[in-house]
Design a protein that fits this description.
The chain is about 80% helix and about 0% strand. It is mainly α and about 400 residues long.
């Protein structure tokens, strides 16, 4: 009898233990599924990096907490199990990261679009093109080039209008009749248009990238505009602004033009340095024409002294990269004429580089393949001739 009672008690304890174990596993399964659903929902709704960062920590904590129960959960949750649901969380995490990045890009594009929309109404078509080109870099670069052209045309139109007035009238000696004749222009708010043009150019420089072909024209345009303003700025302010506003407006425009000049110079010298870097020429960085000339001469002198350390073929490659691919075909036709036009470089400095380059060529080792030698000599001669011809044309333009 006693033996039967003991066996019954043991059986009840065993069954109770089994029920307790089942309840514990049931709780684990329920907690795992509940937290999985909540984490997935939160990841799908994440709207910024701070929220996502915290959620990523929660996901890592979730995965680590239930890792000891991986085998049980893989069997208990059909069909995904622990492994499948953790993988789904990782995909939700990747999706959240992409959505937040996309949101950031949309804001950047919206900001750029808003900046472009500050232009005058004649640029409506261009603004539409820019909006459509948001996702394509190639299309964006094409649109930026068109925008640059529009800004340049508007700058020219503003000062063409101003020039036509002040060839005929001197506003320091305007009569009442003359002021009436100019009243139609007052409606166009010329001073405000000039201010707007400078601001748009500044915005353009800070929101776009430029090819080596575009950069010299950017500097040329800025200097032309600045020169025109210096010639007519005071007259314009006297003609179209109340006396109480003249000094303030002129000072503001002068400040904007100075900012534009600084940005343009930065883009110009950076682009010029990158031309040499693209050909892997060891020319030290420079920020003005004097430094550029000195650093190029140091480079050529160093190459002429290194003839013993380099083979004839190696010398030829470096010489061609500088004399033909860079100095002769890029700088002399487009960059140097603009620099000379605006006092950043002199003809004497250019001739100094040409003389150095010819001396470098003359001191090079004989090349076994005479054809290559002829090609290098011919390429240098053609490049220098083209550079001089185009430079002369641009200086006279």
């Amino acid at each position: 009898m006693k033996k039967g009672i003991i066996l019954l008690a043991l059986a009840l304890l065993f069954i109770g233990g089994m029920n307790a174990q089942e309840r514990s596993q049931s709780d684990i399964k329920r907690d795992f599924e509940t937290r999985f659903v909540l984490l997935t929902k939160n990841l799908n709704g994440a709207e910024n990096e701070a929220t996502l960062t915290q959620l990523l920590k929660d996901v890592a904590s979730f995965e680590a907490e239930f890792k000891p129960h991986q085998e049980f959960l893989n069997k208990a949750i059909f069909p995904d199990g622990y492994d499948g649901l953790v993988d789904r969380l990782k995909k939700s995490k990747e999706l959240a990261e992409k959505k937040i990045r996309a949101s950031q890009l949309e804001k950047e594009i919206a900001s750029l679009t808003g900046q472009v929309q500050s232009l005058k109404e004649e640029n409506a078509t261009l603004r539409s093109q820019l909006t459509k080109a948001q996702a394509e870099l190639a299309s964006l670069k094409k649109t930026i080039a068109l925008l640059q052209d529009e800004i340049q045309k508007r700058d020219e139109a503003v000062f063409a209008l101003v020039d036509s007035l002040f060839v005929k009238y001197d506003t320091d000696q305007l009569s009442g009749t003359d002021m009436k004749k100019l009243s139609v222009l007052e409606k166009k708010n010329v001073v405000a248009s000039i201010k707007r043009s400078v601001s748009d150019n500044i915005l353009f420089l800070t929101s776009a990238s430029f090819s080596p072909q575009q950069i010299p024209q950017l500097l040329n345009e800025q200097r032309r505009f600045e020169s025109s303003w210096k010639g007519v700025g005071q007259k314009l302010s006297k003609a179209y602004l109340p006396s109480s506003m003249q000094a303030k407006e002129v000072t503001q425009i002068n400040g904007l033009i100075t900012n534009w000049r600084t940005l343009t110079d930065g883009v110009f010298w950076k682009g010029l340095n990158e031309i040499f870097a693209a050909e892997k020429l060891s020319i030290a960085p420079f920020n003005n024409g004097e430094e550029m000339n000195a650093n190029i001469i140091k480079f050529i002198d160093a190459e002429m002294q290194n003839t013993a350390q380099r083979s004839a073929a190696e010398q030829a490659v470096i010489f061609e990269a500088f004399a033909y691919k860079t100095w002769g075909s890029k700088l002399k036709p487009s960059w140097i004429p603009v620099m000379m036009r605006h006092g950043l470089y002199s003809e004497e400095q250019m001739n100094e580089i040409d003389v150095k380059t010819k001396a470098w060529l003359a001191g090079m080792k004989p090349i076994e393949d005479r054809t290559l030698s002829y090609i290098l000599v011919g390429a240098l001669a053609i490049a220098i001739a083209v550079g001089i011809y185009l430079g002369t044309r641009k200086r006279s333009a």
